[in-house]
Amino acid sequence: MRSLHSRRIDALLLAGGERLEIIHGVGTGALRDAVRRRLRELSEVREVRDADTPGRDGVTIALL
């Protein structure tokens, strides 16, 4: 069974989406690191990066 996260990404892809923004907030960086590690494990995700806009340190971008 696919995880909830994978099903949501599948739904985004079926709708024509190519970009997912995950808001994890700023803190010690532990949650950011865990989110990025999990995203890199998903075959649908081709790139994981910081947000494009300054001041959005608590956001990770996943390109699908």
Structure description:
The protein has 64 residues and is α+β, with helices and mostly antiparallel strands. The chain has one domain (4-63): Ribosomal Protein S8, Chain: A, domain 1 (2-Layer Sandwich). It contains two helices and three strands, in the order αβαββ. The chain has a three-stranded antiparallel sheet with strand order 1-3-2, covered by helices on one side. β2 (47-50) and β3 form a beta hairpin. The chain starts with a helix and ends with a strand.
| Sequence stretches where pLDDT stays below 50 over 5 or more residues | none
The tally of domains stands at 1
Could you say which structural class the secondary elements and strand pairing correspond to? alpha+beta
Count of helices? 2
The string of secondary-structure elements, in order, is HEHEE
CATH topology (fold) name: Ribosomal Protein S8, Chain: A, domain 1
* Strand tally: 3
Compute the gyration radius: what is it? Answer: 12 Å
- Largest sheet entry: 3 strands, antiparallel
What share of residues are in beta strands? 15-25%
Strand order of the largest sheet: 1-3-2
The share of residues in helices is: 25-40%
Average pLDDT reading: 90
CATH class: Alpha Beta
Question: Between the first and last Cα atoms, what is the distance in angstroms?
Answer: 21 Å
The CATH architecture comes to 2-Layer Sandwich
The coarse silhouette is globular
